[in-house]
């Protein structure tokens, strides 16, 4: 594989004074023990990388991608009995009235996909989108739902999707983390949603920030200038080499030396990644980086493209925060919230799709947009949740996710919810199926991607997951 | 164990039959169930051909694609019987392998009496090695008896001779000193300690060192931390609310104390599971301000039950009382089975264990042991003490009133009255009064979270597919039959029976599992490498006889863990070096048979503690509430609410040993996470030891490391003026326990010409020699 050759070249050029024997130990160690070495997919793959755009809080499908005209007619009325009952977090479904959407929907693209007026820029790419309106699971609280979408299971302790993908495929990037996460602030259930669970720590998401030191601890302290950095590296590795020589055959020790070489490379690669000075004004504009409202998410989308360009396997972008700046959790004034939040991400996401396409990266990059659940067709008039008559409660029983790129045929709508947008009725897609599909597009068999833990072979999709959607998405 | 005869309405008839015929029937049913498993199980077991599965009664009755297979009481109406009699379209088993007429008759009779099913009976006779009580094996007589220091060595070298392997030479005294200090204390020896041991030429030098280290409280901190991994300890509940368990630390301190006191392991187990039932602490109130001694002793034991109050808990479980209870019980079963039994019972939550003879019924019978128990906060001072603590709570009443008034003045959300104008002076005065009221208010009396009995004991059921809403057969408390041991439950003391069952001298697993954990702690890998799984999916023991010998010896030594450490560490096996040997590697590259010692990387907490010890900043204070250390803004990334990270105002606290730091389930300390600290969601059998670049970045560039490097530089300068040679020698002794070699000193001196001493200190912390124990 080309990666191994590169590594061999790097080491022979590194000039650190290793004996040839030691260098071969190092190489073997790196090959044997590098958990992120690129691996061939199990199945024919149409996508090499994933960019997962995560709208934290639960974006309303009813205000974005799933128009329900019946809501307007029933506005203010109780839910007709025919729709049954569901468990919600704050409101009692049968006691709150239907809430109409104020958004205007229009048909876009050749396929005529209906999208609301909060996503005009994304809608312009309608023919790239496969909009799945029938997603579902049963986690009606944020943590359960966040864990469902990100870890495939409502409880804590499972590896995230990004961890499974990098566990399955390794990374094409030698000097950047394989699985990168860009946050908007705090997450309602904290970092386990991008954690590696019971998988080794090598597969956990690495948080990337804006600025010259995008990765935690990647920047050498100012106290040690670049000349010192060279001294430090040479003496450290010399010292380690003495230690290794006296101990002969220990691949762990050699692997740790290799990990320091990688760390030194990351220290150089990370500022280069973050340095967007060379990006043209037109590109920045495309991502909305010239406008205050969209600059932040636009910058993240641009970084996402740069990461994918550099071979990073899995990139997750978060919109919505628990520590300021708002989120998609529309318990109060749902419409107002959607307008604000969509306003921050619409142009950047559209820019990302356009830029990936123009650089020939969209074919191999699967872009997924969604959140932990959708919203109820009813108002969240509950007293205990802080919701109001213009808010909507959590709805995991039917919501929308869309995909683009990565071999997915755009311009199609898959599945539907019932007439009020409460439950997925046609072609329901459980989160297990969604994950099985994502893995399948990446060339991973969700039934074979297993890890033995606590007496059992665990999978991202537990004991479920169907992949028939993957075929439909591709054709 | 006697199965209490409870019935559910739907199963009334079947159980009536069961009861009427009693023992005679249970003998008759077993062959029928066993025949079905044997003759049909290969197609209609895990592979569920035609959707038919004979492994559970419900599934058997339900049948497969062809509909119901068995109608209890009506053999003639049962498709199963027609198929095995081969008198219809369906002839089973297919081909020529028909059942004998005797087998058919047995099954017919069995359906006739209602197809009774006792899954424990069906699976009781397990021949699996770890389910048999360990017996004292003969100690082998190897050829090379000269190498032997104690019986452990006889087992090990006999195996080596058998495999054609040769033990390597013994470790140097320096290596050995580092090894024992890290293994027992999780801290490096100081230069003086190394010197003392190296220069002590008395024959008992090594033994004396072990005794000294085992007697130090540092031992409990290190081995207590190992146990906390096994019981998934954390200070918060995780999930969205990540609630603070404000008394969890009392359990953590209980664990450390128990190791330091060398509490017999069986007692340690009993206390954690059922101290309240075995040693009741609701004694009389004699004693006034002081707790009576016996009550205090029993309260201290009861802190052990805190084990079951510090698990993960999600807010959504509280939506349904049944679910909250079911989740708590499930967590209790899984932690109990992993920690004490070394079995993975988690599988049986949803279906019978596919590999071990543990049925779903076993799982819920074990869950029923915890039904009727709940966590409770109790005062750990005398009643008089409670009164003392609470008598000045009027100050808190005042504080609340001042807060109310301040909120009204400020027009804050939540104020009960609208904003009222007030002078600046009034606001200032109120703030002062508020501070004063809080300062003088009594702290809440000391409490602990422990197990207690709830007001009512809920019925227990098998939960189909593990879902709390899908109640199956009602079950009574009990223990997996396959393990052979029995214990009598005297209501309401169910946990007491569990504790007695586990600690019964005949129990096949308890001693083996713990002996194996301690072995793993010293040799890097257990005799059974999967130390939480002694079942069929686990690894086979490399030295089965040694494991049994140790388990029997453990019991003979009164389950003393310190005696076990001593035994293992006094063996020649433990004192080998970790040097390579090509010939041995050709046969046993992974060193499964212990021809040398395994080298290991420091664990996350050991690493942090070592760096603090080297820099001289380590604060040896023991016990007390958990300490949150400062984090940079970058390090806090993703935390839901930074106010849930209460940084201790006293900086000296930030340098406490890692076992005393705040363990937040939804947010691990970034340095610990990088170095494989487990996530505290489930029992951790053995830590990963990964090698990834972010570890290097953490050690080279993090605030903590830079600070400690500067601290070490300062320490060195204070003791050695500014002479580079002296600084390098002193630093090398602190970091590695040895003087620098000539070329090392030369290169370090050259480095110091262009770089400051702190950079060299940081470099030492980053070396493999610092990070690994030979």
Describe what you observe in this structure.
The complex is a heterodimer of chains A (475) and B (774). With 475 residues, chain A is α/β, with parallel strands linked by helices. In chain A, the strands form 5 sheets. In chain A, strands 1, 4, 5, 6, 7, 8, 11, 12 and 15 form a 9-stranded mixed sheet that branches. A two-stranded antiparallel sheet of chain A has the order 2-3. In chain A, 35% of the residues lie in helices and 15% in strands. In chain A, α7 (226-247) packs antiparallel against α8 and α10 packs parallel to α11 (334-358). Chain A has helices at 2-13, 20-33, 69-74, 120-123, 142-151, 161-169, 226-247, 251-274, 281-286, 292-309, 334-358, 431-441, 468-474, and strands at 49-55, 105-108, 113-116, 129-136, 179-182, 206-207, 314-319, 365-371, 374-375, 394-395, 399-405, 412-414, 416-417, 424-426, 429-430, 450-453, 456-459. In chain A, β13 (416-417) and β14 form a beta hairpin. Chain A folds into 2 domains: 1-33 and 228-274, no CATH class; 37-116 and 127-212 and 282-474, Alkaline Phosphatase, subunit A (3-Layer(aba) Sandwich), CATH 3.40.720. Chain B has 5 domains: 9-117, no CATH class; 145-217 and 509-600, no CATH class; 223-382 and 449-503, no CATH class; 392-438, no CATH class; 602-773, no CATH class. Chain B has 31 helices and 6 strands. Chain B is globular, with a radius of gyration of 31 Å. Chain B has helices at residues 12-44, 57-62, 79-85, 101-112, 119-123, 151-163, 173-185, 191-199, 205-215, 217-230, 248-260, 265-278, 293-302, 321-341, 360-370, 383-390, 394-410, 424-440, 494-503, 510-523, 544-556, 561-570, 582-587, 604-615, 670-674, 693-701, 703-720, 724-736, 742-754, 757-766, 768-771, and strands at 373-379, 447-453, 460-463, 471-475, 600-601, 772-773. By secondary structure, chain B is mainly alpha-helical. Chain B has a two-stranded antiparallel sheet. A two-stranded antiparallel ribbon of chain B has the order 3-4. Chains A and B meet through α5, β6, α7 and α8 of A and α25, α26, α29, α30 and α31 of B.
């Amino acid at each position: 594989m080309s990666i191994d050759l590169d590594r061999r070249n790097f080491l022979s050029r590194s000039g650190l004074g290793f004996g040839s024997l030691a260098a071969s130990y190092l190489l073997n160690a790196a090959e044997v023990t590098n958990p992120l070495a690129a691996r061939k997919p199990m199945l024919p793959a149409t996508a090499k990388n994933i960019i997962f755009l995560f709208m934290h809080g639960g974006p309303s499908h009813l205000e974005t991608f799933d128009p329900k005209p019946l809501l307007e007619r029933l506005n203010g009325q109780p839910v007709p009995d025919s729709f049954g009952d569901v468990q919600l977090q704050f409101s009692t479904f049968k006691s709150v009235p239907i809430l109409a959407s104020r958004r205007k929907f229009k048909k876009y693209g050749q396929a005529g996909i209906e999208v609301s007026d909060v996503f005009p820029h994304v809608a312009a790419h309608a023919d790239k989108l496969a909009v799945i309106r029938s997603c579902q699971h049963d986690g009606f609280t944020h943590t359960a739902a966040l864990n469902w979408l990100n870890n495939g299971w409502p409880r804590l302790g499972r590896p995230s999707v990004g961890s499974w993908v990098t566990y399955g495929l390794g990374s094409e990037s030698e000097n950047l983390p394989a699985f990168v996460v860009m946050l908007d602030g705090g997450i309602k259930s904290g970092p386990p949603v991008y954690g590696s669970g019971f998988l080794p720590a090598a597969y956990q998401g690495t948080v990337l920030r804006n600025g010259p030191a995008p990765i935690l601890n990647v920047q050498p302290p100012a106290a040690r200038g670049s000349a010192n950095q060279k001294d430090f590296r040479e003496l450290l590795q010399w010292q380690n080499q003495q230690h290794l020589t006296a101990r002969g055959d220990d691949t762990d020790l050699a692997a740790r030396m290799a990990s320091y070489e990688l760390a030194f490379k990351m220290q150089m690669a990370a500022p280069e990644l973050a340095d967007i000075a060379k990006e043209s004004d037109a590109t920045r504009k495309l991502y909305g980086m010239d406008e205050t409202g969209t600059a932040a998410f636009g910058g993240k989308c641009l970084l996402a493209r740069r990461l994918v360009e550099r071979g990073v396997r899995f990139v997750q972008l978060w919109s919505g925060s628990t520590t300021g700046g708002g989120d998609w959790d529309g318990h109060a004034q749902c419409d107002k919230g959607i307008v604000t939040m969509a306003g921050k991400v619409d142009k950047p996401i559209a820019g990302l799709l356009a830029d990936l396409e123009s650089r020939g990266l969209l074919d191999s990059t699967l872009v997924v947009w969604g959140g932990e659940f959708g919203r109820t067709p009813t108002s969240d008039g509950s007293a205990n949740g802080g919701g109001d008559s213009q808010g909507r409660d959590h709805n995991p029983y039917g919501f929308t996710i869309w995909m683009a790129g990565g071999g997915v045929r755009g311009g199609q709508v898959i599945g539907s919810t019932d007439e009020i947008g409460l439950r997925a009725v046609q072609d329901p897609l459980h989160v297990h199926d969604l994950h099985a599909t994502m893995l399948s597009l990446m060339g991973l068999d969700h039934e074979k991607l297993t890890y033995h833990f606590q007496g059992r072979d665990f999978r991202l999709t537990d004991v479920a997951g169907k992949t028939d959607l993957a075929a439909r998405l591709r054709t | 164990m006697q199965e209490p005869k409870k019935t559910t309405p739907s199963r009334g008839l079947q159980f009536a039959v069961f009861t009427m015929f009693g023992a005679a029937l249970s003998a008759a049913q077993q062959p029928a169930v066993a025949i079905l498993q044997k003759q049909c199980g290969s197609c209609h077991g895990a592979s569920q051909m035609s959707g038919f599965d004979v492994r559970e009664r419900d599934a058997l009755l339900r049948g497969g694609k062809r509909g119901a297979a068995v109608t209890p009481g009506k053999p003639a109406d049962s498709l199963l019987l027609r198929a095995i009699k081969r008198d219809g379209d369906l002839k089973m088993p297919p081909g020529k392998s028909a059942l004998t007429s005797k087998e058919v008759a047995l099954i017919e009779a069995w359906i006739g009496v209602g197809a009774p099913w006792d899954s424990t009976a069906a699976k009781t006779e397990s021949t699996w090695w770890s389910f048999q009580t360990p017996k004292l094996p003969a100690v082998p007589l190897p050829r090379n008896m000269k190498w032997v220091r104690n019986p452990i060595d006889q087992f090990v070298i006999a195996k080596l001779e058998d495999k054609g392997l040769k033990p390597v030479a013994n470790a140097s005294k320096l290596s050995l000193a580092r090894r024992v200090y890290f293994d027992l204390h999780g801290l490096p020896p100081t230069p003086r300690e190394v010197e003392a041991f190296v220069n002590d030429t008395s024959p008992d030098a090594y033994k004396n060192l072990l005794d000294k280290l085992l007697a130090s409280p540092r031992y409990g901190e290190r081995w207590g931390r190992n146990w906390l991994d096994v019981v998934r300890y954390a200070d918060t509940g995780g999930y969205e609310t990540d609630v603070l368990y404000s008394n969890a630390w009392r359990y953590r301190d209980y664990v450390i104390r128990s190791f330091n006191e060398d509490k017999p392991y069986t007692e340690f187990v009993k206390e954690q599971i059922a101290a309240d039932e075995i040693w009741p602490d609701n004694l009389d109130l004699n004693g006034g301000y002081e707790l009576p001694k016996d009550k205090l002793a029993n309260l201290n034991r009861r802190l052990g039950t805190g084990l079951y109050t510090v698990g993960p808990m999600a807010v959504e479980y509280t939506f349904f009382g049944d679910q909250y209870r079911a989740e708590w019980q499930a967590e209790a079963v899984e932690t109990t089975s992993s920690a004490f039994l070394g079995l993975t019972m988690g599988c049986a939550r949803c279906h019978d264990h596919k590999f071990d003879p543990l049925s779903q019924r076993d799982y819920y019978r074990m869950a029923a042991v915890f039904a009727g128990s709940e966590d409770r906060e109790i005062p750990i001072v005398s009643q008089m003490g409670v009164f003392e603590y609470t008598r000045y709570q009027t100050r808190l009443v005042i504080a609340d009133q001042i807060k109310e008034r301040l909120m009204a003045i400020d027009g804050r959300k939540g104020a009960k009255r609208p904003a009222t104008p007030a002078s600046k002076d009034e606001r200032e005065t109120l703030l002062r009064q508020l501070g004063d009221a809080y300062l003088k208010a009594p702290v809440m009396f000391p409490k602990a979270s422990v197990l207690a009995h709830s007001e009512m004991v809920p019925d227990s059921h098998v939960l189909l597919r593990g879902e709390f809403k899908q109640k199956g057969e009602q079950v009574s408390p009990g223990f997996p039959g396959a393990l052979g041991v029995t214990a009598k439950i005297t209501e309401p003391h169910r946990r007491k029976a569990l504790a007695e069952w586990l600690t019964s001298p005949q129990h096949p697993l308890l001693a083996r599992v713990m002996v194996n954990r301690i072995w793993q702690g010293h040799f890097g890998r257990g005799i059974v490498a999967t130390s939480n799984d002694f079942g069929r999916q686990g690894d086979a023991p490399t030295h089965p006889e040694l494991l049994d010998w140790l388990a029997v010896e453990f019991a003979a030594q009164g389950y003393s863990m310190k005696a076990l450490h001593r035994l293992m560490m006094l063996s020649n096996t433990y004192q080998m070096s970790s040097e390579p040997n090509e010939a041995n590697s050709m046969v046993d590259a992974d060193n499964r048979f212990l021809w040398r010692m395994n080298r290991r990387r420091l664990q996350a907490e050991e690493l942090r503690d070592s760096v603090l010890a080297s820099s001289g900043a380590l604060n040896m204070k023991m016990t007390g509430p958990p300490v949150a250390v400062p984090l940079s803004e970058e390090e806090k990334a993703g935390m839901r609410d930074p106010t849930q990270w209460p940084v201790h105002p006293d900086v000296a606290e930030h340098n406490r040993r890692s076992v005393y730091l705040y363990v937040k389930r939804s947010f691990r300390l970034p340095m610990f996470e990088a170095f494989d600290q487990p996530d505290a969601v489930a029992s951790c059998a053995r830590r990963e030891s990964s090698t990834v670049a972010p570890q290097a970045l953490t050690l080279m560039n993090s605030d903590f490391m830079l600070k400690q490097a500067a601290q070490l530089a300062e320490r060195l300068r204070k003791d050695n003026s500014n002479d580079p040679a002296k600084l390098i020698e002193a630093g090398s002794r602190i970091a590695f326990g040895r003087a620098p070699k000539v070329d090392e000193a030369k290169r370090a001196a050259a480095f110091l010409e262009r770089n400051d001493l702190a950079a060299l200190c940081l470099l030492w912390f980053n070396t493999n020699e610092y990070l690994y124990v030979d």
